[in-house]
Specification:
7 strands; 196 residues; alpha/beta; 6 helices; seven-stranded mixed beta sheet
């Protein structure tokens, strides 16, 4: 999973960081939070995920916050001619038919990563309306022994960034209540599709 990405490309990264900050500020967005040192390897929840605009905003925020992100996308995104570009942008192709292996494979990749790695996972698993959050992000973090960063894009307040680092306790029911409480006031682009 740990391949060379745009986030490791010094000149391009610096240019895109400057450009991202300029675009966010120019469109009235504010950036909040920082990545704590102990979360250099972490699972980033990206919520709410209600629009195709979430990816460009997430990438701009990642540049602005100096993150080294990887994200999972369905295999069809990685077909020619865009496959190489998607990987360079931090994309990791996922075979939805092998979802059971996904947690173990992702956790192992995080343990093996030499250096920082933030794996972005939208807990809803879809842009459509959903009441049910997938829990893969939780088990990946737990198995990899890394914190969960509560990342967000709040279209209501025009603020994006990183909330607190969350350490999984093993009591998933209780932890999910606490995680969802953080997201309750946050508004997606298509607010009606998101329910924390």
């Amino acid at each position: 999973m740990h391949h060379h990405t745009i986030f490791d490309t010094p000149v391009v990264n610096s240019l895109l960081r400057g450009l991202s900050i300029a675009i966010l500020k120019g469109t009235g967005w504010k950036i909040e939070g920082t990545l704590p040192p102990h979360a250099a390897k972490s699972v980033l929840i990206a919520a709410p995920h209600t629009s195709n605009w979430d990816l460009p905003y997430t990438l701009m925020l990642a540049f602005a916050l100096r993150l080294r992100v990887y994200w999972m996308g369905k295999q069809s995104l990685f077909r020619r001619p865009f496959g190489g570009l998607m990987r360079w942008l931090g994309g990791v192709p996922v075979n939805r038919g092998q979802a059971g292996n996904l947690v173990a494979t992702s956790a192992q990749a995080m343990r093996d990563a030499d250096g920082p790695m933030q794996l972005i996972i939208p807990p809803e698993g879809t842009r459509g309306r959903t009441r049910h959050w997938k829990t893969g992000f939780y088990f990946i973090a737990q198995q990899a022994g890394v914190p969960i960063m509560l990342a967000f894009v709040d279209y209501g307040r025009k603020v994006g960034g990183l909330g607190p680092a969350f350490e999984p306790t093993g009591d998933i029911a209780q932890d999910m209540v606490r995680i969802k409480a953080f997201y309750a006031p946050i508004q997606g682009k298509n607010a009606a599709q998101f329910e924390a």
